[in-house]
Design brief:
about 425 residues, alpha/beta, UDP-n-acetylglucosamine1-carboxyvinyl-transferase, Chain, 2 domains, five-stranded mixed β-sheet, 13 helices, 24 strands, binds shikimate-3-phosphate
Length: about 425
Amino acid sequence: MQRTVTTAKAIRGTLGVSANKSISHRAAILNAIADGEAIIEDFQRGADCLATISCLRRLGATCRWRGDSALVVKGLGSQGLREPSSVLDARNSGTTMRLLTGLVAAQPFLSVINGDASLRMRPMGRIVEPLRKMGADITGRDGGRLAPLVIRGGPLRGIHYRMPAASAQVKSALLLAGLYAEGETVIEEPAPTRDHTERMLRKMGADLQFGEGAVIRIRPRTRELEAMSLRVPGDISSAAPWLVLASAHPDAAIQIVDVGVNPTRTGILDCLTLMGADIRLENERLWGAEPVANIAVRSSQLRGITIGGDLVPRSIDELPLLALAGCFAQGETVIKDAAELAVKESNRIRTTVEGLRALGANLEEREDGFRVWGPQKLRGAVVSSHGDHRLAMLLAVAGALSQGETVVVQAESVSISYPRFWLDLDGVRRP
Ligand code: S3P
């Protein structure tokens, strides 16, 4: 499917974005191994989270829909999962594959987990290696570095693991394995990454401690996790295209309601604010373990900045959008320390540079990020998402900021995380 986007004359409106994908995955997985029934309101219905649900069902969990968007998960308890009779298919979802591998590594049965062509190219050694140190028996293509993975579950032991790269998926896989391991598991992150798993585990009664710096200790459960009902906030990664669109557009004023503003996720707000954006948080409150706010954003004159270090894991999925913001900012924008972008759903350094260059942008592809000179004028062209949902949204927003007509090829990939994206774009864009 392809979509045509023309220049937006103005950007207006109030919208609620797709629910948080990371929280939805974790709420389904943790409640599936908890004691009791949980109602997860506003569970994200994108393809990634649906892949997690279908894997959990294969593992014996009962997940059913109540109304349009509430998912009811009946916990099986820590020992209730059963051997899947078929392959677990994570499709395009790295979170599904990595978190579930950590979980099934500790179960007394065999699991095989696979994904689509993109996921089969993404690095799995980062979870396989520490899980093997915990005693897990995992094989896979290329010595266990690539899916499909075959996991002969069994008893695990706690380890002290210093993660070489910042990754919430690796951390969460090890926390899930650590729940079942003998002895304590200690995880040291090079920089703090999203902590949704930790917040949820704590609320559900897991024995989790935080040490100096980004150190997390988990002890094996002595009692079952308690089921936790929750309402999933909007995903700041799905709010991000609108934040950049409104900040860079000369005539914009929008409000995005009920967005999760967990500080491990708000790097995009900090970066845009440093660039001079006009962003205000309103009605800040807590939904269960997670902070939520409405975000008001208006047109602004952006200026270039350098983004690196601890800001990178806090804005990892939004960095390509910040490169787009750089095209409309005065001066140079540098995004560094972000080599991880090359191993996302697409090589996001390359696909972002290729897409934005097709629209006439002047930017440099670097091994660990981008260099952009602004301000520039973009003009419409035919561009492809390469099947990457975040790229489809970036190109759509770039199209609305360009002169003339932009055609986004493989536009349907937005359904991975934000099925209503194109409707919402029509909603805020004044032609
Ligand atoms: C995610 C973590 C991030 C992010 C991904 C979702 C998660 O990946 O890019 O979209 O839900 O844990 P890393 O684990 O590589 O940081």
